[in-house]
Amino acid sequence: MLKFEKILRANSYSVTKPRRLVFEYLQTCDRALSMRELVNELADSIDRASIYRIVSLFEQLGIVQRIRLGWKYKIELSDLFNHHHHHATCMLCGITFTLTENAKLEQLIEQMAETIDFTLQSHDIEIRGTCTRCTKNGPKY
Ligand SMILES: [Zn+2]
Ligand SMILES: [Zn+2]
Fold it and tell me: How far is the CA of 56 from the centre of ligand 1 (A)?
């Protein structure tokens, strides 16, 4: 059984077609999506309210993780389905870049947790700024 199905069944949820569709679509994405992008993409097959419900269930079950960007957020599959990574988001055009893993940084975070005898479970680091293209085009404000 797929890990995705296992998680749903272990929590007494069935693997419905819409749930599978949302999961499969997220699997094809190489970057985090806003809810609007996800809804637009799946609007032909699943209604908006169901997409929101499914994403919120997935979040609760740890299948999906939320990337907080001030008052906005994006979503992507959690580290259970992805390599652990960090993001950089352009605050002008809104594109979220996936950064390559950095062993030194990960080690450092573990060491920092150790200094206070803290058992590390997860962490996220979000970098916000301006992408190359937007920097070249100059400020919009
Ligand atoms: Zn940009
Ligand atoms: Zn990390």
Answer: 28
* Structure-token pair, residue 140: 């919009």
| H-helix or E-strand spanning residue 141 | none
* Ligand 2 center from residue 123 Cα (angstroms): 6
Say if residue 140's pLDDT is above 70: no
Residue 43 Cα distances to 21, 33, 34, 39, angstroms: 11, 15, 14, 5
Rounded to the nearest whole angstrom, what is the distance from the C-alpha of residue 135 to the centroid of ligand 1?
A: 7
Place of tokens 């599959």: 77
Q: What whole-number distance in Å separates Cα of residue 8 and Cα of residue 27?
A: 16
Does the global pTM surpass 0.70? yes
User: 70 alpha carbon to ligand 1 midpoint, in Å?
Assistant: 16
Token pair belonging to 16? 């419905």
